[in-house]
Each structure stands twice: as C-alpha cells, then as structure tokens.
Fold:
Amino acid sequence: MSLATIRTLTLLQPERIVFGSGCALECAAEIQRLGLRRVLLVTNPPIVPLAQPLVDRLRTEGATVTIVTDVPAEPGVAAFAARLADADALDLDAVIGFGGGSVLDIAKLLAAYHRTGWKVREHFGIGLLPGRSLKLFCLPTTAGTGSEVSPNAILLDEAEQLKKGVVSPWLLADGAFVDPALTLTVPPGLTAATGIDALTHCIEAYANKFAHPIVDLYALEGVRLIGAHIARAVADGRDLEARSAVALGSLYGGLCLGPVNTAAVHALAYPLGGEFHIPHGLSNALLLPHVLRFNLPAAPERYAAIARALGVPAGGSDAATAARGIDRLAQLCAKCGLPAGLRAAGIPADALPRLAVAAMKVTRLLKNNPRDLTAADAEAIYRAAW
Ligand SMILES: [Fe+2]
Structure:
C-alpha cells in the first residue's frame, strides 16, 4: 500500500473520549459543564446499582434524571418506537446510555429521534439520518460492542427477521466514558461473547478491503490487548488489569467501526441474531474461525500480522502463520467457554440455506470482506461452523 496514493479517510470520533477505572462520574461533571439539566438515563435492571453513583452525582448537581430500564436484549424497531414515544413526552436536554451494546444503541437513537417524528426504518443504511435532537453520552458496561465510540446503531427489523444498522455521524456521542471498573461484575459467558465481538471488530477492520493505516493502529493493538487478556477476564472477573486491557481493546475496536467497519463475520452473524436470537457476540464467535479460513487466501499477510499480534510465533509462509493464528482464535473461544458450533447453539441444519440467503442481504458489510463471497460460499461456511 503506497501512502502517496492511499485513499482519503476521515476519522470521526466522539468529541470527548475518557478512559480509566472510575471515570464514570466524570460524565456528571461534563453534563454540568455543558449546562444540561434534564437527563434521560437508559440502562437495564441488573446494572441500575452500577449507575446509581452517577445518578446521585447528577441529582446533587441539580439535574433532573429520568431512568429507563426496560430495553430488551437485541431490541427491534417496535421496542425502539415504544421507548421513543415515552421519551417524546419528556422535556430533555441529554441522553445517557449506561449499559451494553443494545442499551447504548437505543440511547443513541433516542437522542437522535427525540420529538422529530422521523421513522427509523427510513434511515437504515449509511448516512441517511438527518440530525440529532439531544446531547448524547455513552458509558459501556460490557467490553464490548464499541458502540460508545461508533456511529452505528443496530436494530432488529422484525418484518425481515434481520438486524439492520443506522450508520451516521449524528450517532457519534458527545462524550464516551469507558470505565473498566463497570465491567468487573459481567458474568463469564457475557465477558467471553462480548470480548470476542470486540476482537472481531479489530480483526475485520485490519483484514478489510478498505483497511487504512490510521485504523490499522487501533485494530492490531486491539487484537494484541484482547488476545492476551480475554481468557484472564473470563476466568477471574475481578482482575482489573485484564478487564482494563479488554476494555481498552474494545474501545479500539469501536474506533475501527466508523471509518472501516466489519465484514463477513458480522454479515453472517446477523441472521443468527435475526432468526434465532443468538446474542451478537456469541454469533460472531461461532463464525469467526470459519469465515477467516475462507478469507485467508485473499489476504495471507494481513492474517499473519493478526496471528503475530495474538502471540503466534512467525515461521514458514504468511499463510502458514495465518493458519496457526486462526487455530489460536478457535482455541481462545473454547478456553473462554464458548460453544464450538452452530449445532451446539441450537441451530437446525435445515436452517443453513436460508441463513445464507439472509446473510447475502448484509451488503453494507460484505462489500468490505477481503474475499468476495457468494450465497454458496456463505452456506459452506455455515456448514463448516455447524
Ligand atoms: Fe460486533
């Protein structure tokens, strides 16, 4: 890749990115600094206690805080519309998303759509959202989707049983506060699935048709951090060192999502969520090694670099190093306790052809994949992963 002829890339990031154990409370200081008084905090029942110190601080400083706690896992268009109708009844200045990827995505969309009358279905795709109504702050409690720094929000389109994305600079938060201490109580299975999701963001941004040296920096360092620490974070959730490394890797993965984004692993993962409601992180983990084995011949030097970032010793050709890296990834998923196949995850064999048809609709991600993929290729990958 010649820098003289490299394609132009624009990095758009939240105006303020704060990282560090205990930094969640700084969100209250920022909201006060900006003079925002009426705040909607979107979260989930199990993490309300984690949000309480921030809520207390905001109220002490004179803000009115309304708490929404009923965001479903993997929310759809109807669930969002219901939360928006409730939010539209409130006078608001700002929205805080405090939770995992679904909570953050709903918070981002609520901030954008508040009292606009717009319909989210009209904005699925890239760059179609016309604006945002409210200030927006994101605090991830998993590591993670990277949604706190990405311009994406994903919803299930119930009519098509497919996950769809609104992708727009208007969905970039005014502030992202990544506090690894918030992730200390995430249970092992969720730690594993969300960590592998974050690792997948980094891998798919690095081995991508639109890879770019600016993003490569985040991507490779994210692979290194998560690869070296995810098993530790799963084995001992209280290990703040491991949690912090995975949270930082997840942040880096999120920074890859806007400018380059993901590819076929995510494209094939979405139908597993759409039809079978398999959580996003687990869907990616189930497919990761199999998509990468398919992709390897198209970008052996890229996958070899990923393998080295995972700690695989170089040796032989790039293709050989890359293949050992993919084996290492499969071992890592197993070590983290993730199921090894689609069958173990409850997917029937007769679903594979229609999953392949659904995956081929995710063109916004398939176009990024280093190797072109047909419906027959997708079905073969699902079979290998079954
Ligand atoms: Fe993801």
User: Anything to note?
Assistant: The chain is about 50% helix and 10% strand.
